[in-house]
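Record pair follows.
FIRST:
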Amino acid sequence: MKKVINLLVVICISVPLFSQNIDQALFDLEGVRFEKTEGTSTNYTLYIKQPLDHWNADAGYFYQKVLFTHQGFDRPTVMNTQGYFVRPRANEVQQILDANYLNIEHRYFGESIPDSLDWRYLNLKQATADLHRINQLFKTIYPGQWISTGISKGGQTTIFYRYFYPDDVDVSIPYVAPLNESIEDKRIYKFLDTVGTKECRAQIADVQLFLLKNKEDAIDRLKWFAKGQGLTFDYLDNSLEKAFEYAVLEYPFSFWQWGHSCEDLPHGNELDDYLESFISIIGLEFYGDQSMKLFAPHYHQASLEMGYYGFETKRFKKYLDVLDGNPNASFPPKSVSYNYDNSLNKKVMKWLDKEGNRFIYINGDWDTWSATKVQVSKKVDALSIDLAKTDHGKARIKNMNQEQRQRFANAIEKWTQLAVDFTPLDR
């Protein structure tokens, strides 16, 4: 009789889990508001109540935006650990695993901003605690395998999340994710001095020199462009010249990051040709006030603990009038005093080297950020897949060759017992 009772208890516990309605399941989650996407039965926008300080409830709270797709209570779940704003885009990992999907906006971005913008609470310890809380909430309805993934700064977040909470997910898949050693990681300079061909690198330097040598005329023309675009530069001391010099120094970083062609580089003496290339590859918007405000949380994190890069200026120094030395590429809020601390990065690098198992790192070897990618240790069971001559935006599973896809699928099956179906990526 006792065995029969136990069996009935197991049935009562198990059956509702896989037969319940997802709306009811979401309703039962503490601190979760949700709305169904119009015209769909499985897509939702969630707003999850999060403590501003996960270790001090008195600090207040905010609501974190999550775009959610339900595929089935018996399916795996993919967390997309965004580094910035959340957007309703398809996710490769979710598609090839037919998984439930939590696309999570980063705190202090988009709609996930506290009423009081207290920068003390924007750090990796708090941001990863947000992810942990979401993970623990949804594991009550999704008991299967869990995978986290993210792109660029979102990929960095994936790495740090796994460091702080190593048991939350079965596999982590960071795309094009740097792990920087300092606020001005010097490995970037070596990359820019060696990537591609010598001829192409020389052409890029010639473009920069031409622009700087013709700075007065260039700025006169760019004034009209800036006015037409409604750009202001108060953050850079109301100096279009400072924005111009920064952008010229940024030109090679963006050129390689976003996969521009050496064949399209300007030649000759027509300034408009050079300005057209300048605007298409980097432009002035990146240094305008709107961009500075939008990405202030990113610059805050870079200057606080994540690290970033600077600009090597030796060959251009005589043509720079408002920038000195190796200017930093980070522009954090001026209201905060920063003292960069790389101790967390060092701990993470050491942990990855010895305990960073079940990671799949995806990088493009022509992406500037590959200069500071994670180097996979032989001590761990992890995989690094580098796509040849591929940039930041194209280093994706869909662009892997057959051998790389097979390695990817083998690792996923080994670590999760899940079958990978690449068909959705090839449609």
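SECOND:
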Amino acid sequence: MPNRFWKRVWALAAIAGITLALTSANAAPEEDWRFLLAGIMALITLAGVLPTPLREWLARPLRLLRQRPWLYWLLLLVIIYKGVGVWLVAYQPTNGRLLQPVEFAYLAFVVWLLIYLLVYDLNRERGAELTARLGKSRATGILITLTTFLILFFGAEAYLRIFYITTDAYGFTAMNYHWYKNFLWSSQNSLGYRDAEPQPAEVGGLTRIAIVGDSFAVGHGINDIGQTFGQILERDLGGTADVMMVAASGLDSDVEVSRLDSYPIRPDIVVLSYYLNDIDYLMTGTELDPDANFDFIQDENLHWFVLNYFVPNYIYYNLMQFTSPVRARSFIADLIDAHLNDELWARHVGNLDAMVQWAQGYDARLIVLLWPHLAAIEQSRPATERVRAFFESAGVQVIDMTDLLAGRNTADLIVNRFDTHPGVLAHQIAAAALLEAIQGGVTPDAESATQSGG
């Protein structure tokens, strides 16, 4: 080492890496590399800091590399890319997830290795010689470009992982997956729903309200579960009710009754949160599939790269797919057209009627919370009116969010520019409308719903 400072930093990195590697609890079996790296770090560090002939042996490969400065520089770039890349792919560090000790052990090893490569056996004289050779090398410009690209790439990667763990409308992106991992799955109860544990059946004096639905009901894209309409409704009811979430992302009308059947507590009130893609189960895998409006990567290697790194994922999905007005309009039109397709509608009605029959069979009051597409509220009316007409003809109260949200700025209602799920304001309006309906009043207009919502 050129001086005591770097020798101490190098030794401290080794001590930190070895300690963290050997003491990491609950490490997965595939992380047995910890012990190998700990051994390598211990042996090489001791050989490098103790006055033994091995110090000269450790310096030889570095002296050979520094005689070819372009190769030396390229090797450093490869190690940085691989070192950081392996960490990102293997552990996927993101905002909302705490780093594990085994990750710190791995990063300590990368830092230890880079210190060895950069400063071991490098004094002023050798450093000046290395700089002079780089100044004359034709490869220096290319290496500067590669270094700049690497810095910008990992800088953008870090930004997205820290500040952009959020959802998209269709659940395609890596950011969406990690939002679910960090903010939704972590708040699930023992029944697998994004909710607190339900009050035991033997607790009396409570009105049991079950909210059935999909991602609109669970609060897709809303980090704080307390800002979802189910939680707001429970607070507004002031301890007189237990609002139970019986909803999960991706549920369609064909499985919602079975979810109620398997829930351990029978509700007094069922709130069916209905969105236009609840008919999707009849379209998936057919020529009518709305997802066919989007392109998916077929090449296995490119798919892996886009899946594991946020920068290409953001570019490919968010910028190339979701900003296309043609794709968005086609997706919305497919959902609306499905409701107006008499053949599909006839098949779909059977499952909607099953929900009505279930509620009647268990003497539960059914309320339908009907959502339009929030970026195409007026265009959704033909579909929402057909759904509304069916339920009202069966004597079911319908809260049509089309009327409550119409005329509002879309950006105020949705989660983000790439996600048209209901945002906080829309959840507040829905909660206020449900409160009015449950307490026996008339479904409020948009203004009163906003004032009383959360």
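COMMENT: Residues 140-163 form the longest helix (24 residues).
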